[in-house]
Design goal:
Shape: elongated
Order of helices and strands: EEEHEHHEEEEEEE
Helix content: 10-25%
Number of strands: 11
Number of domains: 2
Radius of gyration: 17 Å
Strand content: 25-35%
């Protein structure tokens, strides 16, 4: 199920009778979407991937199917650039009542975009933390806190870099290709 760029869509009501999807649930770039209750009856075991990205007004994602998916998949799911409450896997998991998500799964939900790039990168899946970028020889070239603001890498030479992203003791290593 892909619902993308439905700019006038406020609610997923009317989808209540869909019992399964056998694949992705992707909600992206739906600027005024505020209610996803219509997908609550989907059997989470039929969802293979969950992505909610840039739904500016979406702040409540803790419907039954989403919570069940997170529980079945130990914290997998990608939530980013939504409103507070639905902006990270941690926020959604907390709203679903999970006390903790295995760190290795939370680290998988962190992404660096765009990649490859030549100017700036943004960290997706978390709202703030620390980033350390090293070049291929291990030399530290960037070490700074980050928020949702883009990070400039324009000053770096073209090549492959590795970013260590740390958020609340959770570390993820991601490769960056600078063009």
């Amino acid at each position: 199920m892909h619902i993308n760029q439905a700019f006038n869509l406020e609610s997923l009501s009317g989808l209540d009778n869909i019992p399964s999807v056998n694949g992705y649930v992707n909600l992206s770039f739906n600027n005024i979407l505020t209610n996803i209750d219509g997908i609550k009856n989907i059997d989470a075991s039929t969802i293979t991937e969950l992505n909610f990205v840039q739904n500016d007004l979406l702040s409540e994602c803790n419907v039954q199917s989403v919570c069940d998916f997170i529980g079945l998949n130990n914290g997998m799911g990608f939530f980013n650039l939504n409103s507070t409450g639905c902006n990270t896997i941690g926020e959604v998991a907390a709203e679903c009542g999970f006390l903790g998500i295995d760190k290795k799964y939370l680290a998988r939900s962190i992404a660096i975009l765009p990649n490859p790039t030549n100017q700036k990168i943004s960290i997706h899946g978390v709202t703030s933390g620390e980033i350390r970028i090293t070049n291929i020889t291990g030399q530290l070239v960037i070490d700074e806190p980050f928020t949702q603001a883009p990070i400039s890498i324009a000053h770096l030479n073209a090549g492959v870099y590795f970013a260590e992203i740390e958020v609340d003791g959770i570390k993820a290593i991601k490769k960056i290709i600078k063009q």
